[in-house]
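Hello, quick one for you while I still have it in my head. A protein chain has come my way and I'm curious about its shape. Can you walk me through what the tokens say about the fold? No rush at all, and the record is pasted right below.
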Amino acid sequence: MKMELWVVGRTTTPYIQSGIDIFSKRIVHYVPFDINVFQDIKTTKSLSEDKQKLMEGQRMLDALQPGDWVVLLDEKGKEYTSREFASYVDKRMVSIARRMIFVVGGPYGFSKAMYDRADEKMSLSKMTFPHEMVRLFFVEQLYRAMTILRGEPYHHD
């Protein structure tokens, strides 16, 4: 099984990109992992929020393959502790044959079609964070989950 993080727009803050790169390189020692960046939509001033969500979502829906397990990183999703997330990942790694895709939406969130296609929703926190930081927080937590599963001394309770 392969894990992927799908995001809208490239990460423009250098220190955040540096952190994402560090943890992404660590993750691949445990599981195949990629970050798929979907180009953000230009000239959004002429588009409604719903239209922008629809267009962003359609690009992602078009890139999905049969058998993909889609998890939206969404404020209304289920919250996990780091150990619970590690257990969740462990169970999914056994039960999913193809790709497990975690998705960070665009600035306005997800379209109805994306919600309809999603297999699950997960929240990193009840707080709201900039999308670029969510990327960094997620890859760090995925790395942490891998070290927990291997019994390595990164995570401390």
User: Anything to note?
Assistant: Strands lie at 2-8, 33-38, 69-79, 99-104, 120-123. The chain has five helices and five strands. The mean pLDDT is 94.
